[in-house]
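Appendix B, example 12.
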Amino acid sequence: MRQNAPDNRQLLVEHIVNGQTEFYRLAMSYVKNRDAALDVVQEAIVKALSKVDTVREPAYLKTWFYRILINEAMNHFRRNRNLVSLEEVMADRAEEGRDPGERLDLYDAIERLSLPEQTVIKLRYFEDLKLEEIAQATGTNLNTVKSRLYKAIRRLKDMTGEEIDYAP
């Protein structure tokens, strides 16, 4: 175990305790189910605590944990994407008679983005991470993050017809 591992463990625990609401919200944005979101967060915490001694630089704990959380959420999403709850089917049927444009709001539009685009939008605007932090959290090149963000913003604008502020 590295010398700074106990410090990293304490920093990670503090980060988890302080950010639990944000982590749940982010997981929920992927899995759309309370219990599943709680499971995703719990799995991410277990993985992070078991691997915290591999973190060399305490400054990267935040983005490192986000990476684990996003991976867990995406894994859950991929495993369960073909399962549709009865509530979703009934809600879709109840809204069939309405104009599709009336049903589309920003959150619906975000759900229509690709997973990488959703991740960049959610981390940037919901979690208030900087582009560099998003690149670290997703293990992606900074230019790729920028490209995904710009593309996602353009797609959201097209889908909603609204101007979306870009603030790097």
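The chain has two domains: 1-83, 85-159. The two ends are 37 Å apart (CA to CA).
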